[in-house]
Design brief:
By secondary structure, the chain is an alpha/beta fold. It folds into two domains: 30-96, Alpha-Beta Plaits (2-Layer Sandwich); 119-442, 3-Layer(aba) Sandwich (Aminopeptidase). The protein has helices spanning 2-22, 40-52, 77-86, 98-109, 123-136, 183-195, 204-207, 219-227, 280-291, 323-341, 350-353, 361-367, 394-414, 422-430, 438-442; strands at 30-34, 57-58, 68-72, 91-95, 141-148, 154-160, 170-175, 210-214, 296-304, 308-310, 346-348, 373-379. The strands form two sheets. The chain has an eight-stranded mixed β-sheet, with helices on both faces. Strands 2-3-1-4 form a four-stranded antiparallel β-sheet, covered by helices on one side. The termini are far apart. The chain binds zinc ion. Residues 178, 181, 250, 303 line the site of zinc ion. Zinc ion binds next to loops.
């Protein structure tokens, strides 16, 4: 008996040791903010840095329009600083020791106090909370799943609908596509919480709109950021063996897949996958958006950071034909958001105000199922903490973002009777190039 207990204790000790040993540490890692490139030469130097310094983690991609944040390991510090200086790139230190910031954040996130917005929450807490909301409010809330992740976790969705018989327009929201952007699931869950406890003056938000929300779309990656590596971004699939797992889910959608802003190297953070929709998380989202394209009027996907309200498109500098409507609604949302705490957002297409990216969920939602208002919202901050936004800022970020979301919802409710019909959308799709695989989607069959 004693021997057995000893073995169990040894087992527990070994497990704890393995967890601690495998957790990636960021002691001595720094985050630099490199001033925005002033000319093509500086821009090319940034691209060269990204290409050749494989271990430098670009928290934001090189851009002529905004500063670029890079995280550098202690071994690469001297080399990187020399490169920046020799190319005339001005920089400053945003975070002096990444590990210290990670630890500060983690002390709070390990507290077990149920669902709240003082701390970042584990997946289990979020999913249990969604189920309890549905259990206590069966007439309004239902939980389900749009699919399963690579590691078999539920891609849990909550549907909120007060008047199913009214056939309200739907707002589809997802969060946590990128695992390390913890503020995103905090905001998506906050939106759910607000919708379940609306004040009388906001009652219209559930009377006239239905909400389909997947708060954590990359649950494998999200759990990995708590257990192993706080700064993990991608999914956790193993297309290339164990060395470089994961795919950038927001480059994996089958709309101009693998074009601008992607990297074929599976070890990189913007690897778009071996083929479009290789990832069940992206594929399930696309199927849901496509199958419900007649009802969904807005698609909001929450990321961090940079404080941007992004319209389509990222893959091209061409703008959608209704860009002005998208921009003006985005501006109104950003204004309402700013009124709460003064947080400023920029509004526009990524190819114009940020940098190009392709195969994103936002571009897909607009380009294939033809969802009218498709936005990526890059939440706080502007690089002081980046992905490591302190827990003290969770609630204020949620509160201000909610005001922006309300503006979108009221516009969608107002436009209810108009909007494209199914045949408009069908025709816009079958007009495409016959080789375009999206045409096949109309018949419900997805080509690989
Ligand atoms: Zn992101």
């Amino acid at each position: 008996m004693l021997k057995a207990r000893g073995l169990i204790l040894l087992g527990i000790a070994l497990t704890v040791a393995t967890i601690i040993a495998s957790e990636k540490r960021y002691s001595g890692y720094k985050v630099y903010t490199v001033k925005k490139a002033r000319n093509d030469t500086e821009y090319k130097a940034l691209l060269e840095l990204q290409k050749n310094f494989k271990k430098v983690d670009f928290w934001s991609d090189p851009s002529k329009r905004r500063p670029t944040d890079i995280m550098v390991s202690p071994e690469d510090l001297t080399k990187t600083e020399q490169f920046l200086s020799s190319h005339g790139l001005e920089y400053s230190v945003a975070i002096n020791d990444v590990q210290r910031v990670v630890e500060k954040e983690n002390v709070r996130s390990t507290r077990q106090s149920g669902m709240n917005w003082r701390d970042y929450q584990r997946l289990r807490t979020i999913h249990d909370w969604l189920d309890s909301l549905a259990a206590f409010n069966p007439q309004v809330a239902q939980t389900g799943s749009i699919g399963r992740s690579t590691e078999g976790r539920n891609l849990k969705m909550i549907k909120l609908s007060k008047n199913p018989e009214k056939k309200n327009p739907v707002i589809y929201i997802d969060g946590g596509i990128h695992a390390r952007e913890w503020i995103s699931p905090a905001v998506t869950t906050y939106i759910i919480g607000k919708l379940m406890s609306l004040s009388p003056q906001d009652a219209d938000l559930l009377e006239n709109v239905d909400w389909h929300i997947v708060p954590v779309l990359n649950p494998d990656g999200y759990e990995y950021t708590f257990n192993e590596d706080r700064l993990w971004r991608k999914s956790r699939s193993l297309h290339n063996g164990p060395n470089c797992p994961g795919v950038d889910l927001n480059r994996n959608f089958d709309f101009h897949w693998g074009e601008a802003g992607t990297n074929d190297d599976p070890c990189r953070n913007t690897y778009p996958g071996p083929y479009p929709f290789s990832e069940p998380e992206a594929n399930s989202t696309a199927s849901y958006l496509f199958n419900n394209r007649n009802k969904i009027r807005a698609y909001l996907t929450f990321h961090s950071y940079s404080q941007l309200w992004l319209t389509p498109y990222g893959y091209t500098e061409d703008l959608p034909s209704d860009y002005e409507e998208l921009e003006s609604l985005g501006l109104r949302a950003a204004r309402a958001l700013q009124e709460v705490y003064g947080t400023e957002y920029e509004v526009g297409a990524p190819s114009h105000i940020l940098y190009s990216n392709s195969g994103s969920s936002r571009d897909y939602a607009k380009g294939v199922p033809g969802i009218k208002y498709s936005y990526t919202i890059e939440l706080r901050d502007q690089g002081d903490f980046g992905f490591l936004l302190p827990p003290q800022q969770i609630l204020s970020t949620c509160e201000e973002t909610w005001e922006g979301v309300k503006v979108i919802a009221r516009q969608v409710a107002r436009e209810r009777p108009s909007g494209p019909t199914f045949s408009d959308i069908y025709n816009s799709i079958v007009d495409r190039d016959p080789d375009d695989r999206t045409k096949v989607d109309v018949a419900g069959i997805r080509l690989r």
